From TrEMBL:
Domain CASTOR ACT, first and last residues per copy: 68-125
Protein name: Acetyltransferase
InterPro entries: ACT-like_dom_sf (IPR045865), CASTOR_ACT_dom (IPR027795), DUF2241 (IPR018717)
Species assigned in the record: Caballeronia pedi
Domain of life the protein comes from: Bacteria
Family annotation (PANTHER family): BLR5128 PROTEIN
Gene Ontology MF terms in the entry: transferase activity
Length: 139
């Protein structure tokens, strides 16, 4: 589990997951289970679900956001500082919005579906730059 920011960025290894994912909001009493569910989060206004687009369509769930899902395969410490800010800044500079879910083992980034591959390129550029910095001799 890594905590050093330069090492985290240099090791993040972004991986584009296959498929299209959607964010949707359901009533609090909605029953959500089964294949296709990636994440849920209970908010005051309702239950946010992230799920495979095909599963949402089959269930008649209206998507609010269609996304590509990128996993940073580095095992980052939940106490690590700055990783989310670094990749969000890089994506923002490339005019790519991102929605982030930090799980126990990995960070998961959801970007507009049409920006998935370009977002991976941006993240790989950030990773390469951090790798060069961490490989440089320290004064």
């Amino acid at each position: 589990m890594l905590r050093d920011l330069d090492t985290l960025i240099a090791s993040m290894q972004p991986e584009l997951q296959p498929g299209v994912y959607v964010f949707a909001s359901l009533p609090h009493d909605a029953v959500v289970s089964g294949a296709g569910i990636v994440a849920t989060f209970r908010e005051r206004e309702g239950l946010t679900v992230v799920m495979e687009e095909s599963a949402a369509q089959a269930a008649g769930i209206a998507p609010l956001f269609r996304a590509a899902w990128i996993t940073l395969t580095v095992h980052s410490d939940l106490n690590a500082v700055g990783l989310t800010a670094a990749f969000a800044r890089a994506l923002g500079d490339a005019n790519i919005s991102c929605n982030v879910i930090a799980a126990v083992y990995h960070d998961h980034i959801f970007v507009p579906v049409d920006d998935g591959e370009r977002a991976v390129d941006v993240l790989q550029d950030l990773q390469r730059a951090a790798g060069k910095l961490s490989a440089s001799p320290k004064p």
